[in-house]
């Protein structure tokens, strides 16, 4: 059976409120990401520079799953950020051979 291509979903957030309001929810957001990381779903994550949003790389099976997961992010639940999803297949660099541990 051929090996399944690994798709990573780039969940790109845009902050909807001033940064100080985002930062009031940041600890909850980071705890949420830590939970996803423990489940083997987060490939990487970080804030954009300048700080207008962030990027979460998710190793999940479908865009729907990626969207459902990020809908549970405290940033979304508190209305301080929204996400867009972009599927991506890494073919070069350090993520080219990445496989989800989940």
From TrEMBL:
YCII-related domain segment(s): 18-87
Stated family: Belongs to the YciI family.
Pfam families: YCII
Organism field: Pseudosporangium ferrugineum
SUPFAM superfamilies reported in the protein's UniProt record: Dimeric alpha+beta barrel
Superkingdom, natural source: Bacteria
Stated name of the protein: Uncharacterized protein YciI
InterPro entries: Dimeric_a/b-barrel, YCII
